[in-house]
Amino acid sequence: MTDPHLHDDLRAAVRELCGRFPDAYWRGLDAERAYPTEFVNALTTAGYLAALIPEEYGGSGLGVMEASIILEEINRGGGNAAACHAQMYIMGTLLRHGSPEQKRHYLPRIASGELRLQAFGVTEPTTGSDTTQLKTVAVRRGDRYVVNGQKVWISRAEHSDLMLLVARTTPLDEVRKRTDGLSVLLVDLKAAVGHGMTIRPIRTMMNHATTEVFFDDLEVPADNLIGEEGKGFRYLIDGLNAERILIAAECVGDGRWFVNRAARYAQERVVFGRPIGQNQGVQFPIARAHVNVEAADLMRVRAAALFDEGRPCGAEANMAKLLAADASWEAANVAVQTFGGFGFAEDYDIERKFRETRLYQVAPVSTNLILAFIGEHVLKLPRSY
Ligand SMILES: Cc1cc2nc3c(=O)[nH]c(=O)nc-3n(C[C@H](O)[C@H](O)[C@H](O)COP(=O)(O)OP(=O)(O)OC[C@H]3O[C@@H](n4cnc5c(N)ncnc54)[C@H](O)[C@@H]3O)c2cc1C
């Protein structure tokens, strides 16, 4: 599991593709807050975003380990996998809980790139991390669901054909457990916009195509219900471990990028007649960041291996996400410090990646909520929230 040459061919191939999209490409998009359409198309055409789709549906049937390597390499090369990572983990909900007809209809089209499943509608402005309290409702009327409510931070909604939407189908006061009564609907975004759904972009501190989404009597065919009505929360939880592992891998990619850039700059930059990296005050923080990134990677590899063996990995997936997000953030800080003033200059890309990697302390799950999971489910402490 600790073999550094793990999946060398896959890494090399993804690296080759990413090499066609250098720093200047990402920098230009960042300045414009534009979506990396060309890059995502190239990844899709090469089949990488269909890594987790089984071969019978036109994907490559790889595991979360391989998927995580793909995303890691994107970030390790200076890019930002957030533009497309969700396709990998959202698709799992359809794969595990969709009907045979839904899978036959959608998965081959997603694998070929004809349809993009990039949007996941969970978070709401008034309830945040407290998912079971979400207020968006879907009421069954004949062969349709009528959706009303609002979501926030719904990323890539403008660049996706489909969205997995989590809505309440049974009111909270009518369910036995608060996790009951939520359902997952597959929304055809192109049909929905202007017919009961409005998307408004949110400008953020980094280039992240995120939005708020409003539902006003949006009609969704009942056939688009994934799995059983009322079981949506369970389906959501099922997908979280893959999500945590994949995001951890992106953080490892970011961390390696920061350490690599910082070490290189510390060799090249000469002040007081010697490379700054000859000073322990510069060298040791970079070395420590490297140690922490590599340690986080071990947990990510362990979590991915357990996931792919079909074994429980909730603790490992959460720990990997926490360790990797902390390590990439530490490495980002160290890189800024090593670059001195140039760490703040757009042309050096450090400040861009610094802004990008900061997200992973908060989304898709915040550090506190991971610690709460470990406290409650691993250490058996009282539930703290
Ligand atoms: C750029 C971006 C993209 C995103 N993309 C998506 C997306 O595509 N789809 C989607 O559904 N969501 C998305 N999100 C939402 C993201 O998952 C949430 O921001 C995240 O889960 C935290 O929820 P919140 O922002 O409502 O914070 P809140 O839940 O309001 O929490 C605020 C702070 O309080 C802390 N906190 C809250 N309760 C407790 C407690 N009991 N104990 C300790 N600490 C607590 C949290 O850790 C956090 O630091 C995105 C967010 C961002 C910023």
Describe the SSE topology.
Elements lengths: L7 H12 L3 H10 L4 H9 L18 H13 L9 H12 L2 H13 L4 E5 L15 E5 L2 E9 L9 E7 L13 E7 H4 L4 E6 L7 E12 L3 E2 L5 H37 L1 E2 L2 E2 L4 H29 L5 H26 L10 H9 L8 H12 L7
Parallel strand pairs: 1-4
Antiparallel strand pairs: 2-3, 3-7, 4-5, 5-8, 6-7, 9-10
The chain binds flavin-adenine dinucleotide.
Structural class by sheet pairing and helices: alpha+beta
Structure annotation, total helices: 12
Main β-sheet, in a few words? 4 strands, mixed
Can you give the helix content as a percent range?
40-55%
Q: Tell me the radius of gyration.
A: 21 Å
The gross shape turns out to be globular
Widest beta sheet: strand line-up: 1-4-5-8
Give short descriptive properties of this protein.
385 residues; alpha+beta; 48% helix; binds flavin-adenine dinucleotide; four-stranded antiparallel β-sheet; four-stranded mixed β-sheet
Please explain how this structure is put together.
By secondary structure, the protein is of the alpha+beta class. The chain has 12 helices and 10 strands. The chain has a 4-stranded mixed sheet with strand order 1-4-5-8. It has a 4-stranded antiparallel sheet with strand order 2-3-7-6, with no helix packed on it. The chain has a two-stranded antiparallel sheet with strand order 9-10. A hairpin with a 7-residue loop joins β6 and β7. α1 packs parallel to α4 and α10 packs antiparallel against α12. The two termini are 35 Å apart. The model has no long low-confidence stretch (mean pLDDT 97). The chain binds flavin-adenine dinucleotide (FAD). Flavin-adenine dinucleotide binds next to β1 and α12.
